Amino acid sequence: MRPQVGQLVNNKYRLVRMLGDGGMGSVFEARHEVLGSSVALKFLHPELARRQGLVQRFLQEARVSAKIQSVHVVRVTDVEQTAEGLPFMVMELLSGKSLQASTKSSTARRSASLSKTVCATRCRSSTASRPPTRKASCTVT
Question: Which residues of 108-121 are buried (b: 16+ CB within 10 A; e: fewer)?
């Protein structure tokens, strides 16, 4: 069974809202019932949790992520399994916009447009100096 908002996981974490859902799993904001702190829980999808190789890959991701100490990488503090055997990671909860939401902003669109213009200009200038027999390999979309 897939995790649901409102569910109490391992008598410890209350799922508050879904933050994202992808091909491998889903991520929820959760509240620690005793401490009152907010965390993110990343679950492997149940249909994938039946495949031992994918469970090992998920656990490896948790181990590697827990070792990385960087402001650019979310901190993993624990890895557990639900009573049904569904593996999940406990991670710090970050605030702010998602990458998808950020790219919808006008500033992000202007930055992307400027980047495309710079790339296209560099591509044109690099192909202009080539002999006409050479084919250019620049693509800007």
Answer: eeeeeeeeeeeeee
Q: How many domains does the chain have?
A: 2
* Tens-place pLDDT, residues 116-133: 665 555 545 444 444 444
As a whole number of angstroms, the distance between CA 48 and CA 38 comes to 26
- Average pLDDT for residues 35-58, to the nearest whole number? 95
Instruction: Assess if residue 120 is contained within a domain.
Output: yes
